[in-house]
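Example 5.3 — beta-N-acetylhexosaminidase
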Amino acid sequence: MAVAFSCTPTGNHSPIHLIPEPLSINTDSQGDFMLAVNTAIVISDSTMLPAAEHLKEILKTELPIKWDTEVEKIKPSIVMRYDIALDSLSPEGYILDINKKNISISSGGPSGLFYAAESIRQLLPAHSETGSSVVSVIPGVKITDAPRFAWRGLHLDVSRHFMPLDFIKKYIDYMAMHKLNVFHWHLTDGIGWRIEIKSHPELTDIGAWRKVKEGKRPWQDFEVWRKGDTEPKYGGFYTQEEIREVVAYAQDRFITVLPEIELPGHSEVVMQCFPELLCTNTQGQALKNTGVYCAANPKSYQLLEDVIDEVLELFPSEYIHIGGDEVAKDNWNSCAKCGKMMRANNYDAQQLQSHFVNHFDNYLKNKGRKLMGWHEILEGELSPSASIMYWGGHDGTADALRENHPTVLTQGSHLYFDHYQSLSAQEPKAFGGFAPLKKVYELEPVPEELEPQYTQNVLGVQANLWTEYMPTPQRIEYMLFPRIAALAEIAWSGKSQKSWPHFRNKMNSMLKRYDAMGLNYATSALRPEI
Ligand code: TNX
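Solution (predicted structure tokens):
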């Protein structure tokens, strides 16, 4: 396709509204850059290709990607380059210089180039998000940028409600647009198992499907669907091939996929597949299915090791999330086997939990990976190398960080996007809790009172989407947008770059972009008082 020329006068464009806010924006530019028929994207290393391809997509033109060795005659150009000096700023940082003659993008690494492309996207008018639009002018500006946190996460629970593969990719696109870089994929929970495990096909043959029952909240209905059942069947899972596709798709957008396999709790459906993993009384009869693995049954560990082995093949992430939250320990107290184990080791139930978790910490360590779990894994004695995802209220953050584990902050008081966005009676049913846009935006994740020696424990921040009340992709979009924009700014922009009035103003531009993208965002989030 030929690149269109444009006669749009330079300097006549909307204000520069970028979310997340960069370190600095200088608008005393040397004029706007006009795409011309001979414009090319110039690279000097094959690791620049994902960013170059992405920029082509953003500009909606068939710009050639050329090597710097062949560029002499190709002008005007969009030149990507690595600058070692910028690596000290952050490998994800970049300097983007747009002027009449060319566009220069420098970074310490490939992800920085990609984020510069995302910034260029937001310099373009909202209608450039629509398929038919042709981009011709890129406003002149000089931007210097780098993220505050290395971990900028977004979680999605696909257990409570299964989400189609196409939507998972869209979700990753939404993350990339907001410069987020860890997709926490909550693949298993009490209600459904969503990852194909070849050594244990029962987990998806049985565990991925449930009966749909009238009048029951979906997340309360633990009944699995079995052959011969007449009720409608609901659910689904991702094949290993699909998972590889997602991991590669995310990688191209500089997003790490963090898989979560819940243990030892939140596993009701696993117990439906393997009832022999339930705790038993002295007569060997299974105790109630509270969704917790019997901690004294070697088969519990064997099954989970088999699962983890396949997970490690699929996910190259440094961390593997093992859940560890909300473990009902009553059964362990009354289980004949667990009781015996506790007595033999002088354990209480808390310590049995850490016995379980530490087993997998060692297992993962031996395989060159790191364990991460919800902060409840701090109960009992936790291996110092284990990492924490803190989901308590903001008030408890400092204490959690003083425990001295690498920690991702996902405060339940602010970053739970399953909570209500406004007080409007029209708001669709949500889990409870109140997290309107302004409250999310104003979160300072690292408490002021925290002693400096503990701040290094902060890996970064993340928001979580638990889907008990989100049965469709449309509902997920509604709960995610526009709060994802506030998350982006908490995660990327420094404290001094943040300003609510400015952000609120920038949201007007962002909403136009969301409109052009056809997103189902919550308009009520901008009027939380109703
Ligand atoms: C707590 S946070 C949970 C989830 C629920 C969520 C609802 C955490 C680790 N566990 O199982 O879905 O609350 O907000």
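Remark. The chain has two domains: 24-145, 151-275+289-330+348-526.
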